[in-house]
Design a protein that fits this description.
The chain is of the alpha+beta class. It contains 21 helices and 22 strands.
């Protein structure tokens, strides 16, 4: 602060004046009135010296973050007019400071400096990528929507929309380098446990009328497959899709990803991505873990070499009759908790309401069955015919592996409860609807409905429908059973525990699709589509690192709780003099500030204080 008064006035008024820097804008305001010269003469013989001492006092208080300010409010003052189409809020978010801390620790700025060192780019692609990533977590929108709302962040970035598109081009051009860079530097934030690598695939749809055509590369003459293609989708949407393959570590943190055409078989993308990941891990041994759909013979063979291992779920219904006989043969089963011999019959018949049986009710039984022949596991491989077409045939390969068969009374009862609900729905359909009008599927309730057609010679065929008890009986045989195929010789409990963590990779896709709104995708250019998912991947990585750091601190919150807190951490500019927090404290807020030590818990902030926080994060 400094002293201000009119030196030419006969009876000047002394003010405490302070300069404020808010971004690029600098403002000087009179924040306190010390007094009129004539009035001060009543308490001191030297008003000027008295005023200078008051200024010194104010500066001492300012150093201790305590200051008194005069805020003049004119209730007749009008809001500032502008040519903007839509009015904007004066609130700005600073919750992204926490995301910025992790982003900076990933040293992504050094990646961009390296890849653009020989170019003539005049904008900062790192800044663009930063805010694309923050927006994907906090306010997911199209790229244009993100550009229109950049004013919602404290830093108020000023890059252009075309710079966002150009940054996406840079990302796509350096895809492998970028993914590898993120993994390498994420180890500096949280130690990565890659002893088990989980893999899964998911589809992302586009709201377009037709898929992409294949095209010929003008330089190499290579035929390139279109990215947006029609393919199988769990949502049954009639839209072209792309396929994302994702690897994560045992703590749920992403390791690598790939983007493929929506019509590609998901099993074909696992091994190529795994080869790249093996290079990233410097050849370290790991266990490949996935569900049955990503456990083909080729994948199992690949993960039986180089010190790698596999754990994949196995469909019992697809087993050969020989292995099914071994599964349902009620001998050699043991309790998972203590290896005590027990039969399936005992597990089905004990009184679950007896408190003495509670541990048994929560327990499972298991047996190990050798299953080296791929044909016994119902595995197929593609055979190339003489005409160049491919055909799926039963595999005759051999891979050394065991089947771990488990049975759970609790799971059996849950599956039967769900089925009984479905049977009730099927009965209602028989009463009120035509079953032929209802779409059928392997898990649809209409699978229990059977049609019986009767016709006498020359007469009209009469259809009747009824509940097929044989289908119900066949499904009930498998209730409570579960199978895992593995070439590991580890303890069964350990293998089952590893497999049980596959839900985390499903949660990764849930976060991207639900919380980050990664779909529908609003791009048509191949490179931009890939870059869009690179931004989503970066956002997922940063969020997972944040989540793990909170877990290590001893706190755990839902995705919704964390993101909502970060979104609500907003401040409002008060006459360019200071910022006032407009959010309340919470458990999430307390934990975030304890872990990242950014001090975002105050009610008031000076602009220079927030500017210093940003500078400290980015340097």
């Amino acid at each position: 602060m400094k002293l201000y008064y009119d030196k030419h006035a006969k009876d000047p008024i002394y003010y405490a004046q302070q300069g404020f820097r808010n971004g690029k804008k600098t403002t000087t305001k009179n924040v306190a009135k010390i007094g009129k010269h004539s009035d001060l003469l009543k308490i001191t013989s030297d008003p000027l010296s008295y005023a200078k001492k008051q200024i010194q006092k104010y500066n001492d208080e300012l150093k201790n973050n305590k200051v008194s300010m005069e805020v003049v409010i004119d209730f007749d003052e009008k809001i500032k007019s502008s040519n903007d189409l839509v009015s904007s809020s004066n609130r700005v978010n600073m919750g992204y400071f926490i995301l910025q801390k992790i982003y900076h620790d990933l040293k992504i700025n050094t990646f961009f400096k390296k890849v653009i060192s020989d170019s003539k780019i005049t904008f900062d692609p790192d800044q663009v990528n930063r805010f694309l990533t923050y927006a994907r977590i906090l306010e997911p929108d199209s790229k244009l929507g993100t550009y229109d709302h950049l004013c919602r962040y404290y830093e108020q970035p000023t890059f252009e929309y075309v710079h966002m598109l150009r940054t996406m081009d840079i990302l796509a051009q350096h895809y492998d380098e970028y993914i590898s860079h993120l993994f390498k530097h994420s180890n500096n934030i949280v130690p990565r446990d890659t002893s088990v690598c989980y893999f899964d695939c998911s589809n992302y749809y586009f709201e377009i009328e037709c898929d992409d055509e294949d095209y010929v590369d003008e330089v190499t003459g290579e035929i390139l497959k279109g990215l947006r293609k029609y393919g199988p989708s769990k949502e049954h949407k009639p839209n072209p899709i792309v396929e994302m393959g994702l690897f994560m570590d045992s703590r749920g943190i992403p390791i690598s990803m790939c983007i493929n055409s929506g019509s590609d078989n998901e099993q074909t993308c696992a091994v190529p991505l795994e080869k790249k990941m093996t290079q990233m891990l410097d050849g370290k041994k790991f266990i490949y873990c996935a569900d049955a759909g990503l456990g083909s013979l080729n994948i199992r063979k690949f993960n039986s070499m180089g010190g790698r291992s596999f754990i994949v779920t196995q469909s019992i219904k697809k087993l050969s009759d020989t292995l099914k006989k071994a599964v349902f043969n009620d001998c050699s089963y043991k309790l998972l908790s203590n290896d005590r011999p027990v039969t399936i019959e005992e597990m089905k018949l004990f009184d679950k309401n007896d408190k003495g049986n509670l541990d048994l009710y929560n327990d499972s039984v298991y047996k190990i069955v050798k299953a080296d022949k791929a044909v016994d596991l119902g595995l197929y491989e593609e055979k190339v015919l003489k005409n160049g077409k491919t055909k799926k045939v039963k595999s005759k390969g051999i891979v050394k592996q065991n089947l771990i068969i488990t049975f759970s009374r609790k799971m059996m009862e849950y599956q039967r409860y769900i089925r009984n609900k479905q049977i009730e729905r099927a009965k209602k359909i028989l009463k009120s609807n035509d079953p032929e009008c209802i779409k059928k599927g392997p898990h649809d309730v209409t699978r229990f409905i059977k049609r019986n057609s009767i016709s006498k010679s020359g007469d009209k065929v009469i259809d009747s429908y009824y509940i097929d008890q044989s289908v119900i009986d066949e499904e009930e045989k498998y209730d409570g059973y579960y199978a895992i195929a593995t070439n590991l010789d580890e303890d069964v409990k350990t293998i089952i525990e590893i497999s049980s963590k596959r839900y985390k990779i499903e949660d990764c896709f849930r976060v991207m699709k639900t919380n980050f709104s990664a779909r529908p995708v609003h791009h048509r250019n191949r490179e931009r589509i890939i870059a869009h998912f690179m931004v989503c991947y970066t956002a997922l990585l940063i969020y997972r690192l944040l989540e793990v750091k909170l877990d290590d601190y001893g706190t755990h919150f839902t995705t919704e709780n964390i993101i909502e807190t970060l979104k609500n951490m907003e401040v409002i500019n008060v006459q360019d003099m200071y910022y006032q927090s407009i959010y309340n404290g919470s458990q999430v807020c307390t934990a975030l500030n304890a872990v990242f030590e950014l001090g975002l818990v105050k009610k008031y902030y000076q602009p220079k204080e927030l500017n210093k926080k940003i500078k400290n994060i980015l340097t």
